[in-house]
Backbone:
């Protein structure tokens, strides 16, 4: 029997730009960061999945039970804890578990969360020309972020999306 998380992971794997049920969560709220005990990188922080398949375990180690499997390369994840070679991650549905650090990378991605679609604009302004539309569930590479907008790339198209329509960046982040 498939668990709800496994069904969700399998649904992600059906197509690169699969249109999912509307996800209405806003961008992550600002959170206080602290250095991780293993990497000294900030916790929490966003990363992306570096593989097509990743086991998510109940605890940090191979002896812990696999709770579900991520099946979507580039999916954004939030690292919330570290233990040796293991990272506790949280996904856009607020589900968490442990994955080996080799399955993650620092490349920033985000999921489009607004339905039916988000207009990517030529400049970070509501009045700017629309260059593309991205459906909810599309994973985009995050190139940079201003106070209210992020420059993203999806399907070979670059444009600016409002932070409130993305999961994978914090509301207070700029880079």
Residues:
């Amino acid at each position: 029997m498939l668990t709800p998380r496994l069904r969700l992971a399998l649904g992600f794997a059906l197509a690169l730009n699969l249109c999912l049920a509307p996800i209405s969560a806003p961008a992550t709220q600002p959170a206080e960061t602290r250095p991780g005990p293993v990497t000294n990188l900030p916790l929490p922080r966003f990363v992306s999945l570096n593989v097509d398949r990743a086991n998510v375990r109940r605890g940090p180690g191979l002896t812990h039970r696999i709770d579900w499997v991520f099946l979507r390369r580039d999916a954004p994840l939030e690292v919330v804890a570290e233990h040796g070679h293991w990272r506790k991650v949280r996904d856009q549905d607020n589900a968490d578990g442990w994955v080996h650090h080799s399955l993650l990378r620092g490349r920033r991605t985000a999921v489009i969360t607004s339905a039916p679609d988000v207009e990517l604009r030529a400049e970070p302004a509501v009045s700017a020309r629309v260059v593309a539309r991205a459906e909810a569930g599309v994973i985009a590479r995050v190139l940079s972020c201003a106070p209210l907008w992020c420059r993203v790339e999806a399907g070979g198209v670059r444009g600016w999306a409002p932070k409130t329509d993305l999961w994978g960046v914090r509301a207070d982040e700029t880079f």
Q: What stands out?
A: The longest helix spans residues 4-13. The CA atoms of residues 23 and 113 lie 5 Å apart. Residues 1-30 have pLDDT under 50 and may be disordered.
